[in-house]
């Protein structure tokens, strides 16, 4: 099997409970036999799942199943809401979807030429009818010329990796405390002048290109996260 297929199958097992939280992951040899591939492929999959917070490797090299939804630290990982919740519980309301000439600041963030065309998206994500976060996203038109508003109503990560066969590598994130504007408070169903966390993300593909510059505004003003030695 290909690494993507193995990754998706292991994620399915983790989310379904087939691989129990805090249990040890089967050995590389066992997984290689099960999926009929070499250990290098399994190692690649394991590293990818560690990056996505599904697995944790201890200092004594034991890999076990993590609970990606237990801590708020999913804010710190590049993950889709559908990685953490039942897709049927997720709703996305797109408030802005437009193709614009980018400002110099956004061009600098995306590392593209000045006056380049970019998609500008503002959307609110809900989980079980409760606001999870507000996103303002800029994506280069040159990379994603076929993007539609319907794509923005679901996982953009899935759109990027499935429709374009790009692979997301990592993001550079900066977390700040901000006082919300009135329209942001309304979209997030928060009192006026609320102060919350905002996560600025610059996302990179495996080919080195920047696929998005985004501002994700949460409803929380603090968060807890798991950190390991």
From TrEMBL:
SUPFAM superfamilies, alphabetized: Chorismate lyase-like, Winged helix' DNA-binding domain
Transmembrane segments: none
PROSITE patterns: HTH_GNTR (PS50949)
InterPro entries: Bact_HTH_transcr_reg (IPR050679), Chorismate_lyase_/UTRA_dom_sf (IPR028978), Tscrpt_reg_HTH_GntR (IPR000524), UTRA (IPR011663), WH-like_DNA-bd_sf (IPR036388), WH_DNA-bd_sf (IPR036390)
Keyword Transcription attributed: yes
Keyword vocabulary terms for this entry: DNA-binding, Transcription, Transcription regulation
Pfam family, one: GntR
Origin superkingdom: Bacteria
A GO term for molecular function: DNA binding
Domain HTH gntR-type stretches: 1-68
An individual GO BP term: negative regulation of DNA-templated transcription
Residues annotated as signal peptide: none
Protein name (record): Mannosyl-D-glycerate transport/metabolism system repressor MngR
Provenance organism: Clostridium neonatale
Species lineage: Bacteria, Bacillati, Bacillota, Clostridia, Eubacteriales
């Amino acid at each position: 099997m290909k690494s993507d297929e193995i990754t998706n199958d292991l994620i399915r097992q983790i989310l379904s409970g087939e691989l129990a939280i805090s249990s040890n992951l089967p050995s590389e040899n066992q997984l290689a036999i099960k999926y009929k591939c070499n250990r290098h492929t399994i190692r690649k999959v394991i590293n990818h799942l560690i990056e996505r917070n599904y697995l944790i490797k201890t200092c004594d090299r034991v890999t076990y199943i993590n609970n990606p939804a237990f801590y708020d630290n999913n804010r710190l990982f590049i993950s889709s809401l559908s990685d953490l919740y039942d897709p049927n519980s997720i709703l996305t309301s797109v408030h802005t979807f437009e193709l614009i000439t980018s400002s110099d600041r956004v061009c600098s963030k995306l590392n593209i030429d000045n006056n380049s065309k970019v998609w500008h998206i503002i959307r609110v994500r809900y989980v079980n009818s409760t606001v999870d976060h507000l996103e303002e996203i800029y994506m280069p038109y040159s990379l994603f010329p076929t993007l539609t508003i319907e794509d923005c109503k679901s996982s953009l990560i899935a759109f990027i990796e499935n429709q374009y066969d790009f692979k997301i590598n990592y993001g550079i994130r900066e977390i700040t405390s901000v006082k919300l504007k009135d329209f942001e408070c309304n979209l997030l169903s928060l009192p006026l002048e609320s102060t919350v966390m905002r996560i600025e993300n610059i996302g990179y593909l495996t080919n080195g290109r920047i696929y998005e510059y985004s501002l994700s505004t949460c409803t929380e003003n603090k968060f807890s996260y798991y950190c390991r030695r």
